[in-house]
Structures are given as structure tokens and as C-alpha cells.
């Protein structure tokens, strides 16, 4: 029998990250070293997902499917592998879990503070960040290296009042960062381990928990799309300067879900989630990879279909065999890019579902312009 108050989870396969760390260099291009002789690192934002894992075979599978190069990486617990993919979206499954953000402060790989904004849970005392003397300021180039307080600030001691992590009175930053963790499985990657997503932004801490109730009661892992949304925020500092922050926010999208499903019972939720998954017939259609364009017969180039021709044939296709043929023809025509693949796969999935239900396939709607190519990835 399991321990009743422990949340079950899969073994860890790796992590999905929105940034990496780079070596800080001086004006001459040489690495800056700390007092122990180690290179000083600084965080760097990425515009595509970075996947890390202690298992080389997992890293190889990620690179093969989502692009990127497998490199060695020194993880927090030892040697690992990393892949900076070429993707801003990853198809994932979200297993049953509770998404519960908290304020955390780590030092020397130890969780020093753990707080819900009112009570610091490690010590069982009121939030330490709100206290004026919650840490000893250590100034470097005119600012505290911990909280960023301006050394020129001469105000009276006070209880900190934070707005988006910054005190509205003195402008110092909160030591504890909002920490939100979500576990997902990447579709198509071998193994049954999950990948941790960890965010320290306020947007993720506010948005991701809104899905917690649906995820925590789901009878099966829910198919979703993990994306990254670009945000740019400007605010006025205490010195009257305008500061601009640019960052990415991780977001989980469930293209198959409707607002009604968030309040539906588990049976309805499971039925909708399963309907969004491609059947084996669809997977076979997708696996019918076209010939390489380099191997195409140059004599047939004049007879190739145009992109508009392929789009029109997708609309009127009535069975999966037609979609399979269009996949090959689109490849020969040089228009089998990401959006076209999604349209072909989505139409094949729709046709299979209609065949399973004994219905006649109806023409799929078509939007004018490029919007028809910007459909969300489903499944």
C-alpha cells in the first residue's frame, strides 16, 4: 500500500527550460572568475525550448524530433545532456498533479525560505521578505547584490509592500521568487519519465494554477501544447527612469478543450481528450513520408501541384488514402512545411473520427488568407 499523504509521480526524465547560463566575460573577452577560481555565470533568455536530461538516448530523441544539437552540460546534480531545440511549441501530455506555486529562496543548493506570501513554512513565522531587516545588504556598484536596493536610498526602515516582486516604498526586490513547477511528458519521446518545467515569473504563477483543478482530477494524462509567450513590460523606477523587461512565459494550451469541460465530470473530460488523439490509422498516414525533393524527377516539375491546389484538395478529401497521397504530392511540390503537415494530419484525424462514427465526411471550412495555415497543433 502507498503512503497515503504522498503524491505519486513518474520518474524524472529531464527538464524543459526557457533559458541557459553563459560565462561572464570582461572587456578583453576573458572569463570572469569568482574568489574560488570558477567562471562567473549569468542567466540568458532563449526564444526556443531547451531540454536537459541525464540520459543520452532521451537527448538524442529530442534532437531528432525537435531539432538542435546534443551537448554535454553540468547539471545541478551532475553531468547531463542538453538540447536547445528549434521549437517554440512542444506537444506534451500533462499527468495528474497539483500545481501549487510558492515563494522560494535557494542558497548553496538548499531551500532557505519557503513561503505562501503570509507564512514562511520552514520556520513557521510570518513572511520574512516583508521585514526590513530580512537580510544584510551587500552592495556592489551602488546596489545590493541580493535585493537590488539603491545604496543612495536614505528612507526610514519600514515593512516592505511588494508589487510584482518590487517594494513600492524603497524599490528593492523580493528575495524569494515565485516558483511554479509543472510535470509533463513529451509526446513521441521514448520512456515513461516526465519532464519538469520550472518558472520564476509572476505570470506563470498566476496563470498555470487556473488549470490545476482540471488537471488534478483528470482520469488520464491530458494532451496539450506547451508554448512560450513573449511579454514586454515597462515601469517607472524610484529614480524616475523607465525600465523595460522582456521575457517569455510558459503556457499550456488544450486546443481540444472548451470552457464547459473545465466543469464537466471526469468521463466527459476523458472522452474529449481521447478524441483529440490521432488513431493508429492517422499515425500510419503521417508516417507516409514523401520522397526527398532531391530525388524527385525533374521532368515532373512542370506538372507539380501549387500550394493553393494542395489546400483545395485537403478541403475536398473524403478519405485517409487521399490525404496520404496529398502528403507525397505536397512533398514533391516543395510545400510540405510545418503548417501544411498540421493541416494534412488534422484532416486525416477528422476523417478517421467521422468514419468511426459512421458519418459522411463534410468539407472542412476554409478561411481566406494565411489564417488557414496557422491552425493549432492538436494531439
Structural features:
single chain; 379 residues; alpha+beta; 2 domains; two-stranded antiparallel sheet; 8 helices; 22% helix; 29% strand; globular; disordered C terminus
Structure description:
It is a single chain. The protein has 379 residues and is an alpha+beta fold. It has 2 domains: 12-100 and 178-263, no CATH class; 278-373, no CATH class. 22% of the residues lie in helices and 29% in strands. The protein is built from 8 helices and 17 strands. The protein has helices spanning 56-66, 202-207, 212-216, 266-275, 280-287, 307-316, 320-333, 338-356, and strands at residues 12-23, 41-53, 70-75, 78-84, 89-94, 102-107, 110-115, 119-120, 125-126, 139-140, 143-144, 162-163, 166-167, 177-186, 194-199, 222-236, 242-253. The strands form 4 sheets. Strands 1, 2, 3, 4, 5, 6, 7, 14, 15, 16 and 17 form an 11-stranded mixed beta sheet that branches. The protein has a two-stranded antiparallel sheet with strand order 8-9. Strand 16 and strand 17 (242-253) form a beta hairpin. The relative contact order is 0.10. Residues 280-303 and 359-379 have low confidence and may be disordered.
Amino acid at each position: 500500500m502507498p503512503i497515503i499523504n504522498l503524491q505519486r509521480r513518474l520518474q524524472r526524465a529531464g527538464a524543459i527550460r526557457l533559458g541557459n547560463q553563459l560565462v561572464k566575460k570582461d572587456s578583453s573577452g576573458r572569463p570572469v572568475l569568482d574568489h574560488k577560481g570558477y567562471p562567473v555565470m549569468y542567466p540568458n533568455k532563449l526564444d526556443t525550448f531547451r531540454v536537459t536530461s541525464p540520459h543520452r538516448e532521451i537527448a538524442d530523441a529530442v534532437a531528432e524530433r525537435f531539432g538542435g544539437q546534443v551537448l554535454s552540460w553540468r547539471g545541478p546534480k551532475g553531468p547531463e545532456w542538453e538540447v536547445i531545440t528549434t521549437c517554440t511549441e512542444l506537444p506534451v501530455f500533462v499527468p495528474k498533479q497539483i500545481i501549487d506555486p510558492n515563494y522560494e529562496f535557494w542558497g548553496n543548493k538548499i531551500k532557505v525560505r519557503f513561503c505562501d506570501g503570509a507564512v514562511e513554512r520552514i520556520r513557521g513565522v510570518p513572511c520574512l521578505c516583508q521585514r526590513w531587516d530580512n537580510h544584510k545588504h551587500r552592495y556592489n556598484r551602488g546596489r545590493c547584490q541580493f535585493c537590488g536596493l539603491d545604496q543612495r536610498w536614505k528612507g526610514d526602515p519600514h515593512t516592505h509592500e511588494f508589487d510584482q516582486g518590487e517594494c513600492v516604498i524603497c524599490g528593492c526586490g523580493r528575495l524569494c521568487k515565485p516558483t511554479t513547477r509543472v510535470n509533463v511528458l513529451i509526446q513521441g519521446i521514448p520512456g515513461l519519465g516526465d519532464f519538469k518545467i520550472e518558472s520564476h515569473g509572476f505570470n506563470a504563477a498566476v496563470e498555470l494554477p487556473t488549470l490545476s483543478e482540471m488537471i488534478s482530477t483528470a482520469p488520464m494524462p491530458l494532451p496539450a501544447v506547451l508554448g512560450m509567450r513573449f511579454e514586454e513590460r515597462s515601469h517607472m523606477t524610484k529614480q524616475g527612469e523607465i525600465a523595460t523587461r522582456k521575457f517569455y512565459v510558459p503556457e499550456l494550451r488544450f486546443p481540444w478543450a472548451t470552457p464547459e469541460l473545465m466543469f464537466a465530470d471526469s468521463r466527459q473530460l476523458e472522452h474529449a481528450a481521447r478524441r483529440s488523439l490521432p488513431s493508429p490509422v492517422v499515425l500510419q498516414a503521417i508516417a507516409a513520408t514523401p520522397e526527398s525533393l532531391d530525388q524527385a524527377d525533374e521532368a515532373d516539375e512542370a506538372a507539380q501541384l501549387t500550394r493553393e491546389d494542395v489546400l483545395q484538395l485537403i478541403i475536398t478529401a473524403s478519405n485517409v488514402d487521399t490525404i496520404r497521397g496529398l502528403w507525397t504530392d505536397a512533398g514533391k511540390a516543395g510545400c510540405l512545411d510545418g503548417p501544411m503537415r498540421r493541416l494534412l494530419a488534422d484532416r486525416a484525424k477528422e476523417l478517421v473520427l467521422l468514419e468511426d462514427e459512421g458519418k459522411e465526411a463534410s468539407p472542412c471550412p476554409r478561411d481566406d488568407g494565411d489564417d488557414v495555415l496557422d491552425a493549432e497543433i492538436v494531439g
